[in-house]
């Protein structure tokens, strides 16, 4: 473990997590944040809100991950924000480097700035890491549920209950706030690769799957619907499962993380669609959340009272959102 993790840092106040803090004992939940040193203040801005809106009552721990070592300044400053335990880890090199089966020349052909992040190799490593490796990091060993957080996002409503407990009590596997359509050029062959996978491993596909959400023509093509993975509350065992790992390995061999710009959002979403029933997935409509151009803001009047967002700006009202279609899926028998 010390090979690729720094020691956990309890630089701030000692974590004051007692047995009376019942949620901590009920669910082994953790916040996971992949972040760069230079995003320190954007992250502090986000965590301040998350603490004020939710975690000051629960003290769920944070795991911060980075492909480079965190600076002392980063660790010190972040630990001001919370009294929950914080640990800082480095991503092992083999989870952030080009696999040897990737054709360098073919990859360079696909690097272009016509699409957002199309010219960034680090972005491709990030998407591959979030698709196939974050849940294997030793600092996440022993946790059941993770909540992914990114620098610069906002939490705009009080969260007066515990989403980790909510997920566990209902045996939910995946929770989201925002769904949208992917940029087709970034995933040109993701669907054909996924179809090949399903053909090779039909026994891994859930009988009451939600594939109708990602294909509107009975499987011929991908309709680009995906959950935005910058917010996720998920069961780690789902990603650690044999079926998910087989899917990730299959995609990794296909090479689209580097030849195209496959995002972890469509990859997670296609896995959800193949492997999960509708009832295992939850839209956190009540969690006000802003990431760059898109936000989730509850339209329900009671929910609104705890928020400072404009419900008319909520993405689920946009035509490019897929949340309506998700809600319209039939319940599995
Ligand atoms: P976007 O949400 O698709 O616009 O992409 P972001 O720039 O927000 O990146 C997604 C997440 O990965 C954020 O938490 C970033 O801080 C993190 N991230 C992106 N690139 C890197 C990188 O090269 N190194 C590290 N350590 N984190 C990264
Ligand atoms: Mn982001």
UniProtKB/TrEMBL annotation:
GO CC list: Golgi apparatus; membrane
Entry-linked SUPFAM superfamilies: Nucleotide-diphospho-sugar transferases
Ranges that cross the membrane: none
InterPro entries in alphabetical order: Glyco_trans_15, Nucleotide-diphossugar_trans
Keywords on record: Transferase
Record: active site: 232
Top-rank taxon: Eukaryota
Entry's Gene Ontology BP terms: cell wall mannoprotein biosynthetic process; protein N-linked glycosylation
Gene3D superfamilies named among the record's database cross-references: Spore Coat Polysaccharide Biosynthesis Protein SpsA, Chain A (3.90.550.10)
Any one Gene Ontology molecular-function term assigned to this protein's record: alpha-1,2-mannosyltransferase activity
Family as reported in the entry's similarity comment: Belongs to the glycosyltransferase 15 family.
Protein's name in the database: Glycosyltransferase family 15 protein
Organism of origin: Dimargaris cristalligena
């Amino acid at each position: 473990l010390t090979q690729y993790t720094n020691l956990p840092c309890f630089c701030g106040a000692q974590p004051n997590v007692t047995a009376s803090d019942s949620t901590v004992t009920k669910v082994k939940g953790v916040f996971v944040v992949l972040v760069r040193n230079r995003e320190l203040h954007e992250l502090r801005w986000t965590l301040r809100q998350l603490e004020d809106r939710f975690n000051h009552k629960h003290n769920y721990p944070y795991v911060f991950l980075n492909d480079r070592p965190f600076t002392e300044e980063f660790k010190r400053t972040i630990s001001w924000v919370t009294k929950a335990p914080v640990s800082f880890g480095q991503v092992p090199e083999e989870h952030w480097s080009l696999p040897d089966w990737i054709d360098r020349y073919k990859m360079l052909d696909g690097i272009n700035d016509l699409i957002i992040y199309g010219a960034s190799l680090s972005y491709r490593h990030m998407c591959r890491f979030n698709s196939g490796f974050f849940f294997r990091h030793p600092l996440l060993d022993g946790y059941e549920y993770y909540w992914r957080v990114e620098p610069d996002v906002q939490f705009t409503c009080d969260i007066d209950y515990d989403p980790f407990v909510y997920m566990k009590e209902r045996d939910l596997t995946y929770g989201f706030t925002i769904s949208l359509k992917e940029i087709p050029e970034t995933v040109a062959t993701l669907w054909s690769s996924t179809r090949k996978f399903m053909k090779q491993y039909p026994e891994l596909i859930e009988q009451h799957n939600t594939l109708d959400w990602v294909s509107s023509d009975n499987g011929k093509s991908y309709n680009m619907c995906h959950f935005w993975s910058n917010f996720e509350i998920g069961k780690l065992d789902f990603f650690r499962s044999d079926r998910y790992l087989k899917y990730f390995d299959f995609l990794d061999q296909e090479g689209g993380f580097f030849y195209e710009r496959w995002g972890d959002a469509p990859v997670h979403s296609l896995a959800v669609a193949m492997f999960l029933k509708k009832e295992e997935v939850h839209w956190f409509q009540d969690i006000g959340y802003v990431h760059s151009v898109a936000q989730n803001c509850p339209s329900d009047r009671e929910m609104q009272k705890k928020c400072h967002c404009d419900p008319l700006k909520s993405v689920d009202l946009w035509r490019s959102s897929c949340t309506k279609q998700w809600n319209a899926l039939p319940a599995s028998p």
